[in-house]
Structure formats: structure tokens, C-alpha cells
Specification:
Blueprint (H helix, E strand, L loop, with lengths): L14 H13 L11 H9 L18 H14 L1 H18 L4 H13 L4 E4 L15 E5 L6 E10 L7 E7 L5 E7 L5 E3 L14 E10 L4 E6 L15 H23 L4 H24 L4 H23 L9 H11 L7 H12 L7 H4 L1
Parallel strand pairs: 1-4
Antiparallel strand pairs: 2-3, 3-7, 4-5, 5-8, 6-7
Length: 371
């Protein structure tokens, strides 16, 4: 049996978890551009066993409950959102690979991924929210004439850490509407990966498009499909679309903790911090309950999380005054990061409700104004 690292976090209540979050928070301001890939932070998380929280014991994980996973993500996001966002995409790849009925992807990749010796990510947003409205699939799948696999051509538009990945879980669509999910190695000339787009925030996540030109997907790479709605196959799917909300609430928690600290020496901030802290606590409670029960209105939680992260970060900026507007102050970074939740996997009903609120339109009857 492998000896446990002294820094390993086995439960959400471990003292080592607090130490991990403090380490991540100290380095979070360093991750600014695509050249600043948070390699050290990810290695620290690997050493702490973070990647194992999210998988069953049978797959080499620690088998944390959904509630504990949610608590884990909340604290990580409050410490370092860029690294935590990368981890969500990494874990998405691990869970899809581990959950496949085909044992080959897990045999090849899973152990190396969980120890941090390899990095994986996902390119699946075009089958969920991004570009789903397009008639022609952005990533096309054809059957190889030899009958020994499939060919991938086109673009996966949003792939986090693509340039650093050893394997990418990609989803593509056949002409008949069926879909394929595969664990695709990146060391192939038929794949071209962007270095990372310059974003308003989280640029160090190196999120960019991946282009494929007649890439041969062999049977041992296939995770699921071809089938209709392959993303609903249950392999590695998250709980009710709550993950994005979790990270938003975690960021709101960071802003509220700043306000609380400032409120100790500035009495006028204390009631503001207390009120916002109570809202964060209430939404965290709803989130954890939803993750545990598996039944919830995910859009309602996401809408609440979006509003709360915008309000808390802007409140923190107001409290920080000019100091917060100087590059390098965490409040400025949090305000930029909060904008990410307006676009990252944001369901249309949530986006419409937020637009109505910004325009002062009655959200109960938006169609009367948006027709």
C-alpha cells in the first residue's frame, strides 16, 4: 500500500485542506495570461489527493459524497478560481473515462491522470450549450472506410488547458445525428491546439479551440456511442448542472470574507458583510442539499449564484476603493472572474432573466417586453 503524503486531504474536515487553500490563495494572483499556466498549483492539488476526491474507490478515488465534493469545490474556488476551473474540466475528463463501458481508456489513462503524471481535459461544450444552435456540427464524425474506427474533423471551440493536455475527451456528431465520445490523445499531427485565448479573466486556464483534420479514432479510444444524446449516457455526468454554480458561490464567499475582515476595522462595512454572508450561507445550504438529494431547480440556483457573485465582488470593490482597482489586488481579479459566470455554460433562461433584471423588466412576464 502506497504511503500517504503528509499533505493529502482525505476528508473535507482535514486541517491539511485549510493549508492547501491558503497555499492556493497565496499564488492565485500569479495566473494572469496564457503563459502563466498554474502548473505548480495543479501539482500541489495532485499531491494533496484532490483529483481522487471525485471518483469511486473502485476507480482509484476516495469516493467523496456529492455533498463533500461540493464543499471541496466551494473552498477551492474561494482560494483560486483559475486552478479550480481547470480542475473541473480535468475531473470531467477523468469521470467520463472512468465511467465508460469500454475499459481501454481507463486502462491507458486513469492512473496517470489521478497522480498528476498526465493531464486531461474535455471538449464537449458544443454538445451542451456552446454552438448547439448551429445546423452543421462543428465537430463532425464519419465512420472510417476500413470499419476499424471513426474520423473526426472540425473544431472543439472551448477546450481548457488544450495545449497542456495529454488526452482530450471530445464529442462529435455523425450525419444521422448520433454522437460519439472519445478519449483522444493529443500527440497526433491531425490535431492542432491553440495556446490559449486572451480572456477578460482566467486567461491562464489556456482555454482555446482544438482543430481536427481527419483524426482517426480507434475503438480503444471510444468512451460512448455512437448514439443519440451521448452526453446523457450517464458516464461521468455531473449532478444537475450545479458545478458552475458551486464555483460562483465559492468566489462570492471569497469576496464576503474580504468584506468581513474589513468590517472589523471599518464599522460601516460590518452590517453589509453580515447581510451578504447570510445570503452566501443560505445559497450554500441550498446547493449542498441539491447535490445530496439530486433533485433541484438548477436554473434557480444558477441564477441566484450569478446575482450573488456579481453583487459580492462589486461590494468588495466598493469597499476596497482605489486600492482594489490597482492590478494585483485580489478584489479586482474577483470582479473580472465574476463576469465569467455570465458566459460559462449559462442556460438561456438564466441569461434571459439576468438581462431582464438589468433592463428593469418584470422577470415574471419577460415575453411581453422581449417579443
Amino acid at each position: 500500500m502506497a504511503q500517504r503524503s503528509p499533505n493529502e486531504v482525505l476528508t473535507p474536515d482535514d486541517a491539511t485542506f485549510t493549508q492547501l487553500c491558503e497555499t492556493l490563495a497565496r499564488g492565485a494572483e500569479r495566473w494572469r495570461t496564457p503563459a502563466d499556466w498554474p502548473r505548480e498549483a495543479l501539482a500541489t492539488c495532485a499531491e494533496a489527493g484532490v483529483f481522487r476526491w471525485f471518483l469511486p474507490v473502485a476507480d482509484g478515488g476516495l469516493g467523496w459524497s456529492e455533498a463533500d465534493q461540493t464543499r471541496g469545490y466551494l473552498r477551492l474556488a474561494a482560494a483560486d478560481l483559475t486552478t479550480t476551473f481547470i480542475i473541473t474540466q480535468f475531473i470531467g475528463a477523468c469521470r467520463r473515462i472512468a465511467g465508460s463501458d469500454n475499459p481501454e481508456p481507463a486502462r491507458r489513462w486513469l492512473a496517470r491522470l489521478l497522480t498528476g503524471d498526465a493531464f486531461g481535459t474535455v471538449g464537449i461544450s458544443h454538445l451542451t450549450t456552446s454552438r448547439r444552435h448551429l445546423r452543421t456540427p462543428v465537430l463532425r464524425v464519419t465512420e472510417d472506410p476500413s470499419g476499424e474506427g471513426f474520423r473526426l474533423s472540425g473544431v472543439a471551440p472551448w477546450v481548457t488547458g488544450a495545449i497542456h493536455a495529454d488526452v482530450i475527451v471530445l464529442a462529435g456528431t455523425l450525419e444521422d445525428g448520433r454522437e460519439l465520445l472519445a478519449a483522444v490523445p493529443t500527440d497526433h499531427p491531425a490535431m492542432r491546439r491553440g495556446d490559449g485565448a486572451e480572456l477578460v479573466a482566467l486567461s491562464a486556464s489556456c482555454t482555446d479551440q482544438v482543430e481536427l483534420d481527419d483524426y482517426l479514432v480507434t475503438p480503444h479510444m471510444v468512451i460512448a456511442g455512437p448514439r443519440v444524446d451521448v452526453m446523457r449516457a450517464g458516464v461521468g455526468a455531473g449532478t444537475g448542472g450545479l458545478q458552475t454554480s458551486t464555483l460562483a458561490i465559492g468566489l462570492a464567499r471569497a469576496a464576503v470574507e474580504y468584506l468581513t475582515q474589513e468590517g472589523v476595522r471599518r464599522q460601516e462595512l460590518a452590517p453589509v458583510a453580515q447581510r451578504l454572508a447570510a445570503e452566501v450561507e443560505e445559497l450554500e445550504g441550498r446547493l449542498v442539499a441539491a447535490a445530496t438529494q439530486g433533485v433541484c431547480d438548477a436554473n434557480a440556483i444558477r441564477g441566484g449564484a450569478n446575482r450573488l457573485v456579481m453583487r459580492t465582488t462589486q461590494a468588495a470593490m466598493t469597499a476596497a476603493k482605489g486600492a482594489g482597482f490597482v492590478q494585483g489586488h485580489p478584489v479586482g481579479r474577483w470582479c473580472r472572474e465574476a463576469l465569467f459566470f455570465l458566459v460559462w455554460s449559462c442556460p438561456q433562461p438564466v441569461a434571459t432573466e439576468q438581462l431582464c433584471e438589468l433592463a428593469g423588466i418584470d422577470t415574471k412576464n419577460p415575453s411581453e417586453h422581449l417579443a
